Amino acid sequence: MRRERFERLQDQLAAQGVDGLVLLGSSSVAYATGAAVPGQDGDRAALFRPVAVVAKGDSAPHLYTLYGDGVPADLPEDHLHGALFPDLDDGVELFENALGNHFGADATIGIDDQTHAMLRGVQGFDWVDASAVVGAAKVRKTPDEVACIRNAQLLNELAMADTLTMLRPGVRQIDLSARFLRRVFELGACANGIDPIWQVMAPTRELGPWTLHGDLAYPTVTTDRFLREGDVIWVDAGIIWQGYASDFGRTWITSVNPVPNDRQLGQFRRWRAVVDAALERLKPGVSALELAGPPLRPTTAFVRGSSTSTSLTVSAPTAPKCRSSEPISARSSTRSSSWSRGW
């Protein structure tokens, strides 16, 4: 898989007339080299970041890193180097010299992040946005990558299904986190992508947490609050398996016997109409902008009014953010978005 990803990067460098890539972002470095780094706080992660260099026509990526334990076994020894410090003014000269070993003067190089020190001190290269190359390589997945994404999603969903069995009045949000995290690692997850979210939603926006911009507050901090009968909670979790991430989203009702009311069912139908309109349009060659545009034809949903049901035309750009009020066991699909970060 690492070889196939590197070949796709090489194909895009040739197709777009770029001489190489200098990658500082953790996901891009992992994609290009397969390198892993330990979990650490943001400031330390930025200072001791790994750097990947991909030169057009080379047989393998070059990796500059402090973390020998995270280096793939198949990386050639002459392509592994000590750390660079592109965030520091006194590290720019070393950084510039390293690039000079891979690229000639005036080379066109794709870069995914330029630090202040780089902007002040690195000269002699024609920098372009690396996303055109990296994005084009990432967007098409091999069968192996799709299998990894599916497995990451499966682990996430299995752990969530287990967590749902304990949801009832009197359970705390942190109890749900403990169950989910224990189970997902028992199933073989490599890392937790985000802190699990169990946000209790107010019946109306006016009764919810105050925000400066007036929109819904999300996410709110998970605490040791006890969940009560009828609490509607927004659930969100992300895990990583072998460098591939998954995401899980649901709306659950806190109850021994969760049953959505008419208003919640109406919200679910509006949400389902938007999803169905997007799925109707989804096919190879369709852009994300087209998916977010007006539906191919008006989509009619029914929302319960004060005394009668009324017809409502739902358009994707303007429909409110609604998640199903049905419990997970009654739903047929999961909102999921998985992306490649592979190492």
How far apart are the first and last residues' alpha carbons, in Å?
Answer: 9 Å
CATH superfamily of the largest domain: Creatinase/prolidase N-terminal domain
Structural class: alpha/beta
What is the number of strand segments?
12
The level 1 CATH classification of the largest domain is Alpha Beta
Helix-strand pattern: HEHHEEEHEHEHHHEEEHHEEE
Tell me the fraction of residues in β-strands, as a range: 15-25%
Rg to the nearest angstrom? Answer: 24 Å
Q: Spans with pLDDT under 50 lasting ≥5 residues? A: 298-343
Summarize the structure in words.
The chain contains 10 helices and 12 strands. It is an alpha/beta fold. Strands 4-3-2-1-5-6 form a 6-stranded mixed beta sheet. Strands 7-8-9-12 form a 4-stranded antiparallel beta sheet, covered by helices on one side. β8 and β9 form a beta hairpin. α1 packs across α6.
Summarize this, please?
With 343 residues, this protein is an alpha/beta fold.
Descriptive keywords:
343 residues, alpha/beta, Creatine Amidinohydrolase, Chain A, domain 1, Creatine Amidinohydrolase, 3 domains, six-stranded mixed sheet, four-stranded antiparallel sheet, 33% helix, elongated, disordered C terminus
Element layout with pairings:
Elements (H helix, E strand, L loop, with lengths): L1 H15 L3 E4 L2 H8 L8 H6 L3 E5 L6 E3 L15 E2 L10 H9 L7 E4 L4 H6 L4 E4 L1 H8 L4 H22 L8 H14 L4 E11 L30 E10 L2 E10 L8 H20 L6 H4 L7 E6 L4 E6 L24 E2 L3
Parallel strand pairs: 1-5, 3-4, 5-6
Antiparallel strand pairs: 1-2, 2-3, 7-8, 8-9, 9-12, 10-11
